[in-house]
Write a structure and sequence with these properties.
With about 600 residues, the protein is α+β, with helices and mostly antiparallel strands. It has a domain of about 140 residues. Helix content is about 55%, strand content about 10%. The chain is built from 20 helices and 11 strands. The strands form 3 sheets. Strands 3, 4, 5, 6, 7, 10 and 11 form a 7-stranded mixed beta sheet that branches. The radius of gyration is 24 Å and the shape is globular.
Length: about 600
């Protein structure tokens, strides 16, 4: 069984030393009273919940899974329902939601660390309240006043939870193929008919109602994605006063048998003429749904961070205690029969890789959350426009890169345990299984890569990249006064220039052959992620040097930041060299073989 301790010290480092959250909040309307004292209280209480309440349920959910009852209802694992009620009673669902719906109106960047702690302690459980945030964002952004009045308050309070119902058995990522139908009724509502697969938290016993956000097609709508509309379809139809009324015509047809996240109910949902409410405009459903999907993609990036953090914590504890072999440079535990394996270079490589991905990923996604704050709360139109641009650019990178590196970290965690990692007693094999889905749902790594390179970068003729590369070069310029920073800065300047020239090269190649985009895209998004994580680690080193100069009782903590940055630049960032090589080869090595030549 894995154990989890909330990394409050590193969270405070990112918030205080690196991103200066207090100063950030001073620039936002109605956030001036959010100070570090308040943040520490919130994080402290949230850490108790994650460590003491849902952390111990992680292995329980994995072993027991969910149970499908005869009436189509789903029973969650022992303790899940009680934990959810404690979560609601504590006011956690409403933390960063609007006050006029009963929320506490705190910034998104306060809610994100709470979701990180919950997700690292027990990702399966955290998905039940987690998807509600996307449902709320979608209804708030695109719903009518009637919809908001019916659904927002119970979602904000946590009495109801939300889901996203996107794909169907024949669709996969190509939502233009979906067949679920919507027919308008005489009362202005709609009858929704069809089946949706892979619906996380689609049916459960935690909340009194479940609000499904469903894509469907109206009669005579255009084929493909231009003919999709969006609907709210609740499990129970609310009365005009918001109370629970009749059971809707929808049900869970099956629970998926799956590799990991056993504690979460992944459902086949059947809609049999179910009552639905139109969200936004007809045939604009996919555009509206991107509000939910982009929120979910950041949440999935957070999942990658969670698995890296859990792997690191448990690997570190195990490698300190596990005795095996003697150090090549001489005994480090001469009184014992062998040395702890943490002294061996290869074990250090695995531990430092996990640490670099977890702590660097935290810095990156917390920065993204500050852009979310600006986008939703700032009264400066130019600041909101820039934040929207930056967040849109970062979202596919965070989703793809952090889930890829989170899975790598989970695998390294298992490797640190050796044969003991392969059995379920320690829980690290569960972390590997749970992590694997992150690279698939909310759009695979390949889909995120096409979105970044094809739509956001080349689709804007490189304009989407310019603010990001300008920020990096400006950071390097502002930091060059510190001689200890110069090795980092020299590398970042070189890679940023290569990033720009590489983008132009792929763009020219794509004019001749569009397959050049698909051939380069995954390598491109990973290349981008490594650079951005390099910026995060360079900035962390700079912050650590500053604190050491000022004087601190935590010298070891700040020295470790600098040493991890050195490791990242020496041992991980050079991966960009091979990515440059593979991207330069173009599509021919992939596409010249005729499909009939794929034989066995």
């Amino acid at each position: 069984m894995t154990t989890y301790k909330a990394p409050l010290r590193d969270m405070r480092f990112v918030m205080q030393d690196l991103l200066h959250f207090e100063k950030h909040y001073q620039s936002l309307p109605d956030c001036e009273e959010v100070n570090q004292e308040l943040i520490d209280v919130i994080l402290g209480e949230a850490s108790k919940f994650s460590e003491e309440i849902i952390g111990p349920l992680n292995a329980v959910g994995d072993e027991a899974g969910c149970e499908m009852l005869e009436n189509g209802e789903v029973k969650t694992a022992r303790g899940f329902k009680e934990a959810y009620q404690q979560y609601v009673d504590g006011g956690w669902p409403s933390l960063d939601q609007p006050a006029h719906y009963g929320g506490q109106d705190l910034p998104m960047s306060i809610g994100l660390p709470i979701r990180e702690m919950n997700g690292t302690a027990n990702w399966s459980w955290s998905m039940y309240p987690g998807l509600s945030h996307g449902a709320m964002e979608t209804i708030e952004e695109h719903g009518s006043e009637e919809l908001k009045a019916l659904f927002m308050e119970p979602l904000v309070s946590g009495r109801w939870t939300g889901t996203m119902c996107l794909t169907e058995a024949h669709c996969g990522t190509d939502l233009g193929l979906l067949k679920t139908k919507a027919e308008q009724t005489s009362n202005g509502r709609y009858r929704i008919t069809g089946s949706k697969v892979f619906v996380s938290s689609g049916e459960h016993d935690l909340a009194e109602n479940i609000v499904h956000i469903v894509l469907a097609r109206l009669p005579d709508s255009l084929p493909g994605t231009k003919g999709i509309s969006l609907f709210v379809v609740p499990k129970f139809i609310p009365g005009d006063d918001g109370s629970i009324a009749e059971r809707n015509n929808l049900s869970c047809g099956a629970l998926e048998r799956k590799m990991g996240i056993h504690g979460n109910s992944t459902c086949l949902m059947n809609f049999d003429g179910a009552t639905g409410y139109l969200v936004g405009e007809e045939n604009k459903g996919l555009n509206h749904m991107f509000t939910f999907m982009n929120f979910a993609r950041l949440g999935t990036g957070l999942q990658g961070l969670a698995h890296a953090e859990l792997a690191f914590q448990n690997s570190l504890a195990y490698t300190r205690d596990r005795l095996q072999m003697r150090s090549l440079s001489g005994p480090k535990n001469p009184a014992g029969p062998a040395d702890p394996i943490i002294v061996h270079p290869d074990v250090r490589r695995m531990l430092l890789t996990q640490k670099a991905f977890a702590e660097g990923g935290r810095a990156l996604i917390y920065f993204a959350s500050t852009q979310g704050d600006i986008l939703t709360k700032s009264d400066d139109p130019e600041a909101r426009e820039l934040a929207n641009h930056v967040l849109g650019f970062l979202t596919p990178i965070i989703k793809a890169f952090l889930t890829e590196t989170g899975f790598e970290s989970a695998n390294l965690g298992l490797q640190c345990f050796g044969g003991h990692g392969y059995i379920n007693e320690w829980g690290v094999e569960q972390n590997v299984r749970d992590a694997r889905i992150g690279m698939l749902y909310e759009g695979t790594t390949g889909i995120q890569a096409l979105d970044l390179l094809g739509r956001k970068v080349l689709g804007t003729r490189g304009e989407a990249l310019m603010p990001v590369t300008s920020f990096i070069l400006d950071f390097c310029k502002r930091s060059r006064g510190r001689k200890e920073m110069r090795p980092y800065l020299k590398t970042l300047v070189r890679l940023t220039k290569q990033w720009k020239s590489l983008t132009r090269k792929i763009g020219f190649a794509a004019m001749r052959n569009r397959d050049a985009v698909g051939a380069a895209s995954v390598d491109y998004i990973m290349f981008s992620g490594y650079i951005l994580l390099g910026v995060a680690w360079a900035a962390s080193a700079r912050a650590a040097y500053r604190r050491l100069e000022q004087g601190t009782k935590e010298e070891a903590f700040y020295r470790a930041k600098i040493q991890t940055a050195e490791f990242y630049f020496a041992k991980i960032l050079p991966r960009t060299t091979s990515l440059l090589e593979t991207m330069s080869t173009g599509p021919d090595p992939l596409m010249t073989m005729d499909e009939n030549q794929f034989m066995f």
